[in-house]
Amino acid sequence: MVQASSHFIAICSDSIGETAEAVVQATMRQFELPDTEIKRFMNVRDEDELSRVMEEVAERRGFVAYTLVQPELREAMKEEAVRLNVRAVDIMGPMMQAFADTFHNDPKEKPGLLHRMDDNYFRRVEALDFAVQYDDGKDVSAILKADIVLLGVSRISKTPLSMFLAHKGYKTVNIPIVPELTPPAQLKDVQHGRVFGLTIQPELLLKIRSERLKVMGLPNNVQYATSARVEDEIAYAQSLFKELSCPVIDVTDKAIEETAGLIIRMLQ
């Protein structure tokens, strides 16, 4: 007997299930659902295996999101969903049908094409290595090698944004802005449009820094987490952005994906 959780969502895929899980995770942000378990069932290639997946979903009273490119497996999924009274959401099927109907072309129906090791894959790997190696201004010489240069004060999410952009294939370096430190001279030599300044509402940054100190077991009355210091740092960063004539993005209440999307659109 499988132990039931409050909310159970199965990801069923004939590849690795990353696409379906990304859609589920994005949708979950719109709901307050504590104790939700997402479980991936990867490389499902036959009907017997699919039936076992659906039996578990039915037992745990959840639903399944699936990406199956082979028509016979999609049909089997629909039959199992009816038999077991399980809600099944086809992530790719309607989109593939739209392509076929609109462009009068048949799909390859080959699993895993999104993740094949092509030039895009190696570019992303290289970009991720770059982002890790040069994170947080470790080597300012990377500024002139980067596709994107992020500037911002401490705890403004420069690192996770760098990693997300790297996953999209952009070599990204992030440079911390501190009033007591002279900005790297290389910033003035970067091609126009590749440097982006990040700013945030002082109240939110103060809260983020205070929480960080609490997690680290440090007192919250240090200068790093005072209103005066936060406002001074943000004002200093704004003056630098103005001097560099770079685009400025307010990340307050923005998801990493949203900020990255803005940067990519401006870069293009």
Automatic annotation (TrEMBL):
Q: Which UniProt keywords apply?
A: Kinase, Nucleotide-binding, Serine/threonine-protein kinase, Transferase
E.C. code: 2.7.11.32, 2.7.4.27
Q: What class of enzyme is it?
A: transferase
Leader sequence segment: none
Task: Say if the entry is tagged with keyword Nucleotide-binding.
Answer: yes
Q: Which InterPro entries match?
A: Kinase-pyrophosphorylase (IPR005177), PPDK_reg (IPR026565)
Record field: catalytic activity: N(tele)-phospho-L-histidyl/L-threonyl-[pyruvate, phosphate dikinase] + ADP = N(tele)-phospho-L-histidyl/O-phospho-L-threonyl-[pyruvate, phosphate dikinase] + AMP + H(+); N(tele)-phospho-L-histidyl/O-phospho-L-threonyl-[pyruvate, phosphate dikinase] + phosphate + H(+) = N(tele)-phospho-L-histidyl/L-threonyl-[pyruvate, phosphate dikinase] + diphosphate
Q: Does the keyword Nucleotide-binding apply?
A: yes
Q: Tell me, what's a Pfam family for it?
A: Kinase-PPPase
Q: Where does ADP bind?
A: 152-159
What family classification does the UniProt entry report for this protein? Belongs to the pyruvate, phosphate/water dikinase regulatory protein family. PDRP subfamily.
Give the function comment from the record: Bifunctional serine/threonine kinase and phosphorylase involved in the regulation of the pyruvate, phosphate dikinase (PPDK) by catalyzing its phosphorylation/dephosphorylation.
- Please name the HAMAP family in this protein's record: PDRP
Name of the molecule in the record: Putative pyruvate, phosphate dikinase regulatory protein
